[in-house]
Amino acid sequence: MISSNFHTHSVHCDGKDTPADMAARADSLGFFALGFSGHREAAFSNCTMTPESEGRYRREIEALKKQYAGKMEIYCGVEQDYYAGRRDGYYDYAIGSVHWIEKDGQYLCVDWSAERTRENIDRHYHGSAAAYAADFYALEAQVKVATGCDVIGHFDLITKFDDAQAIFSMEDPAYRAAVMQAVDALASPGTVFEINTGAMAKGYRTAPYPAVGILKELHRRKCAVMINSDCHDKSKLTFGFDAAVEAARAAGFTTHVVLKHGRWEELPL
Ligand SMILES: [Zn+2]
Ligand SMILES: [Zn+2]
pTM for the full model? Predict the structure, then answer.
């Protein structure tokens, strides 16, 4: 059973609940650890922390660390977008993510809606989903270098609204080639990729990211996985964890990675 979550958002960025309410809920679920991962500021987005809210975020989580000392481990992490630059050394850990593609002088959001995804492809890629995917995975390939992250967040986020794999399928050679470029760039032994159930929690997907076909490639390369729900609502702290464990096992993983006593550790699945 998974009793931790290291990808969570609070009112300090685009989440619903306060860190204190989320911690209380995690404690009631018997968590041994809860990590917060507020979106680091990206100037062109209003879903991220601001310098002011980041200060409050840090102070509140420091207070929770003290409040739960000896009972539940609290970590102050950050979700660092590709365009937010290198992570700040203050944070206990960083999740590196790609949420936008800079194209034609705009930042195209890849996880806004099915309509926006279709519009991005039609308007900016002449209808070529393969070209869109190629640009996304070219950024993904650089996300560790660009952010200095510890964990690769929702690796195939562009599939958020494509549960049926109608647009992005590993069976499609062009899509697969785009994916594999990023896998080859990132997936050295021990690299941690998260299995993220966030889109399941929001009702967009029936399976977590990344697709099992990608997870199998990561397992072949001796990468590690961390299970998170990308939680924006305290009632979703463990949403889809059974499906995430199932996906990990289907790809050959027998362990998952957590932060425990401040160190990265593998626990049995
Ligand atoms: Zn994200
Ligand atoms: Zn997130």
Answer: 0.97
Residue carrying structure tokens 């000896």: 70
- The 8-class DSSP code of residue 83 comes to G
CATH 3.20.20.140 fits 4-268, yes or no: yes
Angle between helix 129-141 and 114-124 (nearest 10):
100
79 CA from centroid of ligand 1 (Å): 7
**Bond before 173 cis per omega within 30 degrees:** no
What is the CA(119)–ligand 2 centre distance, in A?
23
Q: Which residues are close to ligand 1, an ion, with C-beta < 5 A?
A: 97
Give residue 28's pLDDT: 98
Q: With residue 263 as reference, give the H or E element that holds it.
A: strand 263-268
Alpha-carbon span 171 to 75, nearest angstrom: 39
pLDDT band at residue 46, thresholds of 50, 70 and 90? confident
